[in-house]
Amino acid sequence: MKKVFFPAAALMNKLNYAQKFTVLGLIYAVPVTLIMFTLYSHINTVIITSQRQSQGISLINAITHTIQLMQEHRGLELAMLSGNETMQYAHDAKERELDIAARQLNAAFATHPDWQHLEADWRALRAQEHILPLADNFIANTALIDRLQQFKIAIADDYALTFDGDITAYYLIDTAVNKLPMALDQLGQMRAFGTSILIKKQLSDTQKIQLFTLIAELDNALDSLHINLEKTGRYNNDIKIDLLAASADVKQSAQHIIQLVKSDILSTQFATPSATYFALATVAINNGYEQIYQNLLPAIHHLLDTRIQQHKKELHINISITLISLLIVIYIFIGIYQSTVSSVQSLARSAQKFADGDLQARIQLHTRDELTQVGNSFNIMANGFNTLFEANQDDKERLHAIINSAFDAVIQMDAKGRITGWNKQAEVIFGWSTAEALGRDMSTTIVPLRYREAHFQGFQHYLKSGVGVVFHTLIELEGLHRLGHEFPIEISVSPVKTARGVEFNAFIRDITQRKSSEQLLRLLSSAVEQSPSSIIITDLEANIEFANKSFSNITGYSLHEIIGQNPRILHSGKTPKATYHDLWATLERGEIWQGELINRRKDGSEYTELALISPMRQVDGSITHYLAIKEDITEKKRAETELRIAAVAFESQEGMLVSDANNIILRVNHAFTQITGYSADDVIGHSPALLATNKKDKARCFNLLENVVKTGHWQGEIMNRRKNSSEYPAYMTVTTVKDSNARPTHYIITFTDITERKLAEEKINQLAYYDSLTNLPNRRKLLERLDYSLGVSQRKHTRFAVLMMDLDYFKAVNDSFGHLAGDELLQQVAVLVSAKLRHTDMIARLGGDEFVILLDDIHHDEDVARIATLIINDLTLPFQLLKNKEVHIGASIGISLYPQHGDTSSLLMNHADTALYQAKDKGRGRYAFFSAINTTDTHL
């Protein structure tokens, strides 16, 4: 059992009681703190999760509202495409509501990648909604609604709503986020599909199958919803009645719509007006969404708020209980500490009296713990000590005899620094006899003058504080001989407390001979160890007995790995065998061998060394060892190889010339002649500036040289001139060669003809910034130019206009004559409009039949109106296409002005787009300036 607790006991023995109780307190505090932290972290995590879930419910509410608007917009879109133009106003109004809802979502999810894709797809669908076939339009809208529903579920996952472990909240969330919206979307699809069929009063076999499929899916969704609402009500009694009533109401409304579809649409009677059917279905769908907004989502908010408050209260109670328990334990610990320390202090006082010479001092404790046994044992020891004290006097004489026979000087000194003991060896080392030394001051007798102040300060510091840095340790110093010379000594000093006070014992050894030997050994060792060459010593069998640090650095083997090994451990197999035969033959003749060896390091890499191996002879002339001094010449050999390679590399595919410090050409390669047409005789002795195309480029060459002198390097593109005066772009690199004093000695210039690369870059730039059909700037180029115009107008306080133009009846041309005719028409429109603009203006094609015109530096709004009118009038004239096809189109233009209508590119583009819709609302073939009245600035 003692062995089990030995480590703990050993640790406690090294600490005083304050430290012991501190350790116990810390050990107790660690689990308590850990428990408190774990408890706090767990409850706080629940609170934070619930708060985050509450934030997620607000976002789910906004997304659900947007889905509701998109479903109704889908139905109105199909109604319009099916031919019911009376729903145009409701369609546009719903689109504006959807814009507002989307703007709110954009503010919440602006950086969310899934939302960015949804927003982009919605914009693309808006741009194509009037040209997509009816079936494709329905599929595209339905797919977008489904993706938004999946986005809502993903947001619910992100905010830990769908993973809620509380079954009370789980069914509420599942109903509000998933089950009920799915049923309502099925009903919404039936609303859109049925309205379209009632408008056309036609029902194909495919449509009939789709309606039956929708009815079956809606029945399944309603059954699933009813089951989920029953479970939700089972765990939420407060809203149970409302939920069951809502379930019945939603199912009844849906069944009414299903019955109407069966009796009127599937039977092909088509008696119900499409607007009436649309309104009935909308009421049923909105009723379902009202249940989400009025009952389900508020109930979830209430559950989460209740959970947060409950866990906060629990957190406060648990922390309070833990803190009170901790304070009680600390109070008991302090009581135990004070009781124990009081007994220990009593023991210490009695022991100190005894140590100070009061041999009658005894310990009396009034406790019942183990310290009482210590006190009793001390009293027994004190009685025995008095008996032993008398016997000690006899031992003192024997001790003196031992000290005098010691090989070290043994000197004793009292608290005043006077010598009280001086043995025979002290007389030999320091030259003072015992009679002369006793009573002398220690510092003036054996301490050199330069050490006396430090000796005095250290001595006084110990007498005051009881702390000395030189005690109980062996140190080397200088001693003072009676004749006045100094010599090295090794000394150890120990203080001894006696009844008369403190005494000091010094044990001193003369180490003059040892220091001389060590000095010589250090010199030899330093010479070998600091040698840059590797040095090894082997026996006659070539077993390594010594190796210096350089040998380890070069070979990678540590000393303990190589000692006792044969140097063949380094063999790479690439040194000719004849070399080794010659080596041993030379050594066996007692001669010195020198040559090159190809060896292998520990890591497997090879290196070449120049080795000098010599026999080591003893005094009698016998050879006992071999000494090898080796130099790693791998880099030297590599440098020789690189010089050969550099000569080949100079004749590379890149043009290359070398000039001196005055920039006079010294040498050129063959590629230089091929690129420039200049031969070596044409350029050697001249400046590289002869390649410059004109005076301006020559000046640039001189500036370039100054930059190279400062930085040592330059690279970049530059125009050069060939011997036949033709110009070509080149990519050039200039590098400075410097001497050991960092002064430039040469310049190396390499260059390549990048004519083909520049042509490719121009083609890429054309594809990136220009429309491939009309060769007009594209959206990217337009936005760059628009940002540029904004900067210029802001600095110069000028105005400019953005005109958003859409071609009227362009879809009819595509539908009637095909896309090739449409492409030809767009090209003619681009040429016609471009001819009406100034060279400072710009026309860009955004896509389809949508163009944007940028008019810079305008002075009056009438100037913009005049240009818009001129363009509209020209576009109403007939266009003659290939194969003598004559087509008529028109144009509508929306105008935004800087700075009246916005001070950013996006704002001006959006306002011009809004003005375009305003122009179309007033009738096609006209223009409109942006007006903020009754208009939403933001469009998806």
Structure characterization notes:
With 940 residues, the protein is of the alpha+beta class. The protein contains 28 helices and 22 strands. Strands 2-1-5-4-3 form a 5-stranded antiparallel sheet. A 5-stranded antiparallel sheet has the order 7-6-10-9-8, sandwiched between helices. Strand 9 and strand 10 form a beta hairpin. Helix 2 packs antiparallel against helix 5. 25% of the residues are buried. The C terminus is likely disordered.
List keywords for this structure.
alpha+beta; five-stranded antiparallel beta sheet; disordered C terminus; single chain
Q: What is the count of helical runs?
A: 28
Uncertain residue segments: 936-940
What is the average per-residue confidence, as pLDDT, rounded to a whole number? 83
Any idea what the radius of gyration is?
51 Å
Helix content: 55-70%
Please tell me what the overall shape is. flat
Total strands: the figure is 22
Distance between the termini: 80 Å
Q: Which class do the helix and strand fractions yield? A: alpha+beta
How is the main sheet built?
5 strands, antiparallel
* Order of adjacent strands in the largest pleated sheet: 2-1-5-4-3
Strand content: 15-25%
